[in-house]
Design goal:
The complex is a heterodimer of chains A (198) and B (192). Chain A is α+β, with helices and mostly antiparallel strands and 198 residues long. Chain A has helices at residues 21-43, 53-58, 65-82, 94-104, 107-120, 170-173, 177-184, 190-197, and strands at residues 125-132, 135-142, 157-163. Chain A is built from eight helices and three strands, in the order αααααβββααα.
Chain lengths: 198, 192
């Protein structure tokens, strides 16, 4: 069995003007596709070939670095596409909002913390909202690492992942990463994030 | 005295079509400038306020290291390109060193290119001179710089995506192949 590049739930231009169609298309059909392909090549004929991606990531310190990089790249982009929507934006509701208020003081405080994690990640990487034993944490990781990996400083289940590799925003925002981070909140799919939280 | 952004040693369009005017404008006027600006803000009131970039690279950590090394790395990167100097390593003592350590310039280019293609994430690939005078090729991630490990940089390729994304997008190997066409080998030979 091999991993498959998932189709997007929306068109490449659906997140305009927040994320442009050209960026989405290259990001999905080139970058994400390459991670998927490289992951499949790296696990071919090994005992990881029948494992789920979560199982592979959980013990990533025991696997070759190609699996860490490409397995992370495969999983992280799956999550990223999944938690965005052309109908996104606004505020979270219900239990998720309660948990955010409880763990960060307010939604604004959470957003500030998350934006800061995303803006200050030096080089390539991701910013995360992570759930661990019911509690929420903000973190960031370098390159394609993620909170499921046993090497992560903050471990848990990621429920928001924001890609801050330059390829995620350079065609539209160039050096202005903070503008891209602001735009992300206009397309975040809180219904999907809530499902991952529950 | 505050750190200053060096001027680009050629016109912004001088390296076209290998590196576009637009890329150089952002790379120099925004990225390189931001590292200079951030560094000046971060060193205020620290022991690095009057330090050289080399001292910062060898001794600093965190934001001061990241921004200080990136100032140095970009200056070094921009200085090694030249128009009309395409691809010629003249017979010199340096060309003999290349021959001695790699057998040919093509083999050196090949090994350097492989290192540049396979560096995962943001970073730099370097041709360095070791203490014994031998050449070596190393990868550093993010702001990493060989001076930190006592190695002398001779040539570098910036493989942060901002160095090539406008012109090549995901096709980093195309950027690296083209990169060789704008190297001023006289500058490189003089660094050895």
């Amino acid at each position: 069995m091999s991993f498959e590049l998932p189709k997007l739930k929306y068109a490449y231009d659906a997140l305009e003007p927040n994320i442009d169609a050209r960026t989405m298309e290259i990001h999905h059909t080139k970058h994400h596709a390459a991670y998927t392909n490289n992951l499949n090549n790296a696990i071919k004929d090994t005992d990881l070939a029948n494992k789920s991606i979560e199982e592979i990531l959980k013990n990533i310190s025991k696997h070759p670095v190609a699996i860490r990089n490409n397995g992370g790249g495969f999983y992280n982009h799956n999550l990223f596409w999944d938690i965005m929507s052309p109908k996104g934006g606004g505020l979270p509701k219900g239990d998720l909002l309660d948990a955010i208020n409880r763990d960060f003081g307010s939604f604004e405080k959470f957003k500030e913390l998350f934006n800061n994690a995303a803006a200050t990640r030096f080089g390539s990487g991701w910013a995360w909202l992570v759930k661990n034993e019911g509690k929420l944490f903000v973190s960031s990781t370098p390159n394609q690492d993620n909170p499921l990996m046993d090497i992560a400083e903050v471990k848990g289940t990621p429920i928001i992942g924001l890609d801050v590799w330059e390829h995620a925003y350079y065609l539209k925002y160039q050096n202005r990463r903070p503008e891209y981070i602001d735009a992300f909140w206009n397309v975040i799919d809180w219904d999907q994030v809530t499902k991952l939280f529950m | 005295m505050p750190f200053e952004l060096p001027k680009l040693p050629y016109a912004y369009e001088a390296l076209e079509p290998v590196i576009s005017k637009k890329t150089l404008e952002f790379h120099h006027d925004k990225h390189h400038a931001a590292y200079v600006n951030n560094l000046n803000n971060l060193v205020k009131g620290t022991k690095f306020e009057n330090a050289t970039l080399e001292t910062i690279i060898k001794e600093a950590d965190g934001g001061i290291f990241n921004n200080g090394a990136q100032v140095w790395n970009h200056t070094f990167y921009f200085e090694q390109f030249g128009k009309d100097k395409y691809d010629v390593l003249k017979v010199s003592s340096f060309s003999e060193v290349v021959y001695r350590d790699y057998g040919s310039l093509d083999i050196l280019k090949d090994k350097f290119s492989t290192a540049a293609k396979t560096l995962f994430g943001s970073g730099w690939v370097w041709l360095v001179e070791k203490k014994d005078g031998k050449l070596d090729i190393i990868q550093t991630s993010n702001a990493g710089n060989p001076l930190r490990d006592g190695l002398k940089p001779i040539l570098t390729c910036d493989v942060w995506e901002h160095a090539y994304y406008i012109d090549y997008q995901n096709r980093r190997p195309d950027y690296i192949e083209s990169f060789w066409k704008i190297i001023d080998w006289e500058v490189i030979a003089n660094r050895y």
